[in-house]
Amino acid sequence: MPQKTKRTPMMEQYMEVKNQYPDAFLFYRLGDFYEMFYDDAVKGSQILELTLTSRNRNATDPIPMCGVPHHAVQNYIDILVDQGYKVAICEQMEDPKLTKDMVKREVIQLVTPGTLIDGHAGEAKENNYLTAIYEEDGRYGFAYADLSTGELKTAELTTTADLLNEMLSLRTKEVVLAPSVTQNTLDELQSLKILFSHQEQIEEKSEVAYTTQDLHSQLEITVVSYLVSYLSVTQKRALAHIQKAVAYEPAYFLKLDHRVQRNLELLENSRTNKKSGTLLWLLDKTKTAMGGRLLKQWITRPLLKQNEIVERQNIVQILLDNYFERSGLQEELSQVYDLERLAGRVAFGNVNGRDLIQLMTSLEHIPQIKYILEQLNDGQLDSLLAELDPVEDVADLIETAIVPEPSLSVTDGNLIQAGYNQELDQYKDAMNNGQQWLAELEAQEREATGIHNLKIGYNKVFGYYIEVSKGNIAKLPEGRYERKQTLVNAERFITPELKEKEAMILGAQTKAADLEYRLFTEIREQIKDRILRLQNLAAAVAKLDVLQSFAVVSEDGHFVRPKFVKDHQISIQGGWHPVVQKVMGKQSYVPNDVEMPKDLEILLITGPNMSGKSTYMRQLALTVIMAQMGCFVPAQSATMPLFDQIFTRIGAADDLISGESTFMVEMMEANLALKNATPQSLLLFDEIGRGTATYDGMALAQAIIEYVHDKVQAKTLFSTHYHELTALENNLPHLKNIHVGAVEKDGELVFLHKIQAGPADRSYGVHVAKLAGLPASLLSNASQILAKLEQAGQSLPPSGAEVPKTSEISESTSQASEAVQEVQEVKPAASPLPEQVEAEPVDEQLSLFGETESKLNKKQSKIVQEIQNANLMAMTPMDVMNAVYKWQSRLNQKK
Ligand SMILES: Nc1ncnc2c1ncn2[C@@H]1O[C@H](COP(=O)(O)OP(=O)(O)OP(=O)(O)O)[C@@H](O)[C@H]1O
Question: Which SUPFAM superfamilies does this entry report, sorted A to Z (predicted)?
Answer without folding.
Answer: DNA repair protein MutS, domain I, DNA repair protein MutS, domain II, DNA repair protein MutS, domain III, P-loop containing nucleoside triphosphate hydrolases
